[in-house]
Amino acid sequence: MKHGSVKQLEFENLLPLPPDMDPFTCCENLLRCWQLQECNNYSTPSLIWSISGVYGWPYFRLGLLKVFNDCIGFAGPLFLNRLIKSFLDTQYTFRLSKFKLKLRSSIMSVIYRKCLWVNTANRSGFSEGEIQTFMSVDADRIVNLCNSLHDMWSLPLQIGIALYLLYTQVKFAFLSGLAITILLIPVNKWISVLIASATEKMMKLKDERIRKTGELLTNIRTLKMYGWDNWFADWLKETRATEVTHLATRKYLDAWCVFFWATTPTLFSLCTFGLFALMGHQLDAATVFTCLALFNSLISPLNSFPWVINGLIDAFISTRRVSKFLCCLEHSRDFSIDSGLTSEDLAVFVEDASSTWSSNLEEDYNLTIKHVSLRVPKGSFVAVIGEVGSGKTSLLNSLLGEMRCVHGSILLNGSVAYVPQVPWILSGTIRENILFGKPFDSKSYFETLSACALDVDISLMAGGDMACIGDKGVNLSGGQRARLALARAVYHGSDMYLLDDVLSAVDSQVGCWILQRALLGPLLNKKTRVMCTHNIQAISCADMIVVMDKGKVKWSGTVTDMPKSISPTFSLSNDFDMPSPNHLTKRKEPLSIKKDDLDEISEAADIVKLEERKEGRVEVTVYRNYAAFSGWFIAIVILVSAVLMQASRNGNDLWLSYWVDKTGRGVSHYSTSFYLMVLCIFCIINSILTLVRAFSFAFGGLKAAVHVHSALISKLINAPTQFFDQTPSGRILNRFSSDLYTIDDSLPFILNILLANFVGLLGIIAVLSYVQVLFLLLLLPFWYIYSKLQFFYRSTSRELRRLDSVSRSPIYASFTETLDGSSTIRAFKSEEHFVARFIEHLTLYQRTSYSEIIASLWLSLRLQLLGAMIVLFVAVMAVLGSRGNFPISFGTPGLVGLALSYAAPLVSLLGSFLTSFTETEKEMVSIERVLQYMDVPQEEVSGRQSLSGKWPVQGLVEFHNVTMRYISTLPPALNHISFTIQGGMHVGVIGRTGAGKSSILNALFRLTPVCNGEILVDGININHLPIRKLRSHLAVVPQSPFLFQGSLRDNLDPLGLSEDWRIWEILEKCKVKAEVESAGGLDSNVKESGCSYSVGQRQLLCLARALLKSSKILCLDECTANIDVHTASLLHNTISTECKGVTVITIAHRISTVLDLDSILILDRGILVEQGKPQHLLQDDSSTFSSFVRASK
Length: 1193
Hints:
By secondary structure, this protein is α/β, with parallel strands linked by helices. 60% of the residues lie in helices and 10% in strands.
């Protein structure tokens, strides 16, 4: 605490966790009980029973402590009672909080573990957004069950004791008050059922929104190139709008709940005292104020009851959701090793196997792999070939056990290493990516780097192999990502390698080096290698070839035996891409990889920015911004109604004490009915103001929630791509999930409590000062101690909340990352390594939470002791005053009674005021974090020059002395480049990996602003054009194909600009019409990240999308890399016929791709080294292009 009040806290200042709170132990315990549940109750294992199996008995013991604590609250003597209760309260809260932390870490780690062990097919029933919500929202809701369960019996017990004591005071008159309360119970029950159904619908939409946000963040670069970012943001806002309608239903129902429960005490006192007086009893101070104290003790349990019920409903919904996920079948551990059934010389044994991606047991007919039989001898190199969508990737996945094998058997002999088609890169250092949890062995490590042609790239990076890689490897080129994933597999030294198209992302020179040094080199030549590929060099070196067609093995055998009829890919192959087999294996001299070759973005050290956290207290501007989000008028209405509501309640109590004093002295001037009438008026005014406050709060909170989301999404959409490269998407997603959930739900709730506590305190101080003037003297020292305490506490608690938010981000980031790469992790059997990594993040998060709890209890105990002193002071003064020894009168018995009944709850009110104030400040950190992203740099969206509808007409592209840097401290990615591409020309851009090829497109689409020089299209400087107009008039096929979840029509033409017949025509030309028809036509649903299509098919669909645009400029970023040679050549014919008169800029790795083009540009380290017709350059032996062609032979 001292540390936090003096300077900023860091993670090392946090308290260590007690041994029983270790997340690993907690996870193991819950897992053991869950597995027991699965054994005993196979059909419907219950998460609730598993939790009670681990934590039931300690939780029951806590309950006993609570019973004792609750009963003490009703016992006398006042001062002693306060002291004992304050210590017991603190102990109970401390133990309950520890218990909640243990439960939270158990649930989070069990969910994470499940993600690692469940294969892709079994997980297909859940979207990524849904699984992320399990971790971010559902886990917290289940943990809140700890509070709600004890409250379910504790609150009725407190209410029961209070009612019995009321009976002793006013006999059966209390029944009238009770009748009103009981009448409200079914009303509240009905409201809570409606709230539950609204919550369930809201959670579904929240899952959907988080999934779409994740999709938006992952593919932001592509969306910007298409000019669809605004459309996608609007689509996201529509989902949010539907989510908000359910949130609104919930909030307004909550407001009714608040209204009923807030008016209950006033109605209770009116009915009870009214009936008591009408029954002919005399009201005296003792009766009235004992009853008032009992009413006050009733308010809290009665008010809490609806929240407890809602909390329970939420928790049970969440446990059902999480249980359903935990019931998924796990990836069989013994699946991969069964040497008893496979003869010793076989590495892969597949017998009549049929597999599906579906998790649904009924959907057997939807088979992706059909009746495949395959035997692969140990140590052989197998090339799996076939057209796009023939089932090559699915075959590898079924070998890995990622698909559900519905028929036949698949057995692998030995350990496996896997490189997926889209390389999965961890955010961390390059070394961490390669080691992947294995110990460091320098000899093997450097051999691996050399074999995968990574040594040069790494030597040029700031920090070498300890350089940090951004989220999903954003700061590496496509080729570097592929080689890094390959290096990870090679370093692992497994018995078998499953490689999915690893050579497509690298140029032919590097591809040849990798084939020679890595795949056929000394590191792997005795291992079994199964590789899906379109690379002719690799196919010609294979010991065995497997030809896939529509999910079946069409043919398998050696290269020499392959009949021409089977594979048109060979007959159409290009001499430049195919070396003779003996030529390749004999060649031993190293390829000339130049030392000074430079990466597009090499200085990874600057790439990923550390998450910022503010220091000091939450600034007033943050509160002001929140009020502005809600609307100033609403903010003022809320304040005024809250103050007047409190005034009416205090007026009600003062009128009661006046009545008591008049009737007590027997000098009453008015009839009982008059006193009751005035009480009634107070009651009605109080009810109306409560209603106004509840509804205006709900309205204001909703308005703020809507405003924050739309402002945040608008700012992020207009942020430059550099911002997304430097900010992990998990960090941004944290704002949209956790922080937005806080702004939607808990912030308005806690603010409401803060306001109620604040006006309640004002009311109490006003009444006490009116009754006993001396109380004002006590107020000064009391306020001094209180402000010291709260300053000391608040500075620490605020820092802890910020550390809490910062320590939460890595949990979500690593969780999102693991979801993407879980199949790779399972293939390498690295699950335990990743669980250990996650537990490290979780331990840090637990430590911040634990320190937060200890700090808040430190404060709570001191406040309760302070409150006990105040009660003692008021009581002593009243006793002394009644003796008449003081010159100052301490008022009438009625007022003294009122003062005591007000002083008693002062402690809890002060405590809850400070707690709610601190909590509000903590919750306000969410607004603060969201506001950070409201200040992100923005792209220059508007332009000086407007465009005519048909621009560009010619497609003339000119670069004049263009220099471009990704980050100001880095060397230029494009260095004083000048060239002109005439309209209608087809131009290829080639160069080594990282030479700056993709940077040309980045400059043309203004994804990264140029430092100097200018780019003209049809004579217009593109910097003068509105940025979205520019992008929407150019067509592009990106390097990584992008499909989002939705209908295929939306994917191809989201803006609805093309007729259906036109879409079908283009699909036919792009050779994907048959696949689309079999998937269900244009209205068929595309699964998340397009996984219902193979990578090659996705690339063809992206090409169809680009051709639909009918732009005069088409950019192809290595779009035929994942396509077999046969389909690629058909596509090139399509592009040349469809794009007559269109300027086509092709970035290529295959030499054969650029041979027929009108011109080529060759780049090296951001400099244009050569330009001209490919055929002319080929005839000149000294040209760079000739050396490229020679290297690829």
